[in-house]
Inverse folding.
């Protein structure tokens, strides 16, 4: 399906888990001739390396953390103020369709669309429907899912599996075969904790790698994404054991590192898993225990059931447990090959394309029915 100067508003913010798939879909829509407009929050606006060529509106929406009534009132107030602003914006320039990517930053825009009876689509990246998507799901023109067995879908909601869009640079190299470590060659590991790193990985992984037998330790080539405050100590740990390692708070060339990596150790965020699945990279996963609705555990469960990796709870994730797992994998590298195949079974190739198809189909139906303002 081709776009006919379709005007699409994208509501996404907060973390990379929401922003990255939004960016992938936006690129696809723009390539097809649509006009896209991002509505985000201050955290989303910090991702200034994506969606650079489309109009951007930054709302003052904030999620005020803390217990008690006052933080809830502040959050609700910021959402209502932002919703009112978006309603005024939409009355001046009404979109054909709004696409929300979940999380509280998307809520004012989706609420405004619902108020003005503008069709909206929700995209869910995780294996459990998030709170905002659950709240708004019943009135949606469609909910686009990343996983077939997503939990929490409202009974009356229309939904379809599109997959979780990944960056084009990842999809372009997805067909390159996975290379099992051979003979006495290098074993390349990528430790990644999301856009902000993960302290538990910096606490446990270096100790485990240092504790491996020398015959394996000497073969390691490690790329480790760590929090800025942890970089120095992680570097020191690797250097003291003679492990070849690059430790940074952020890597610009994630696609290139993933292409070379033979095993990934990471959290179980949706965007991370989507990229690993498309590229068939086996993974040791440590879901974030405090994630809303425990969605990272649900994501990791999909991978484990497909045979794409190994899952530890935070309590289970110790240096001793990781040493035991890695030693077994390095003794018989065939397990890595099987896990690579399993991870690929979790992938939906062309997810951005599938999601764009759905968006343009809804937009076309809107145009055909007549797109008029409703006060």
């Amino acid at each position: 399906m081709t776009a006919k100067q379709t005007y699409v508003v994208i509501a996404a913010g907060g973390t990379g888990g929401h922003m990255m798939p939004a960016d992938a879909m936006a690129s696809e829509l723009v390539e097809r001739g649509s006009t896209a407009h991002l509505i985000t929050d201050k955290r989303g606006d910090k991702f200034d390396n994506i969606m650079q060529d489309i109009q951007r509106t930054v709302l003052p929406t904030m999620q005020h953390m803390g217990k008690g009534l006052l933080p809830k009132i502040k959050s609700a107030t910021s959402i209502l103020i932002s919703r009112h602003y978006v309603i005024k914006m939409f009355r001046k320039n009404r979109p054909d369709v709004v696409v929300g990517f979940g999380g509280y930053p998307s809520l004012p825009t989706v609420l405004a669309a619902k108020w003005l009876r503008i069709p909206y689509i929700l995209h869910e990246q995780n294996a459990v429907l998030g709170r905002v998507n659950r709240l708004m799901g019943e009135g949606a023109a469609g909910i686009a899912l990343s996983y077939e067995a997503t939990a929490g879908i409202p009974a009356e909601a229309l939904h379809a599996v599109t997959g979780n869009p990944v960056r084009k640079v990842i999809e372009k190299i997805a067909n390159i075969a996975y290379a099992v470590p051979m003979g006495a060659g290098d074993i390349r590991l990528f430790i990644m904790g999301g856009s902000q790193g993960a302290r538990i990985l910096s606490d446990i992984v270096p100790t485990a790698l240092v504790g491996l037998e020398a015959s394996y330790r000497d073969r390691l080539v490690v790329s480790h994404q760590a929090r800025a405050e942890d970089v120095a100590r992680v570097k020191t740990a690797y250097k003291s054991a003679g492990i070849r390692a690059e430790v940074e708070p952020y890597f610009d060339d994630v696609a290139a590192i993933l292409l070379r990596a033979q095993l990934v150790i990471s959290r179980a965020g949706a965007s991370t898993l989507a990229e690993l699945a498309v590229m068939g990279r086996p993974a040791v996963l440590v879901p974030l225990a405090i994630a809303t609705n425990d969605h990272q555990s649900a994501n990791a469960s999909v991978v484990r059931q497909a045979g794409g990796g190994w899952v530890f709870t935070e309590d289970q994730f110790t240096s001793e447990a990781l040493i035991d797992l890695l030693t077994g994998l390095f003794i018989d590298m065939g397990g890595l090959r099987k896990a690579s195949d399993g991870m690929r079974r979790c992938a939906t190739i062309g997810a951005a394309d599938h999601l764009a198809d759905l968006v343009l189909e809804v937009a076309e139906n809107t145009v055909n029915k007549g797109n008029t303002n409703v006060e």
Q: What stands out?
A: The chain is about 45% helix and 15% strand. The two ends are 31 Å apart (CA to CA). The chain has a mean pLDDT of 92. Residues 297 and 350 are 25 Å apart (CA to CA).
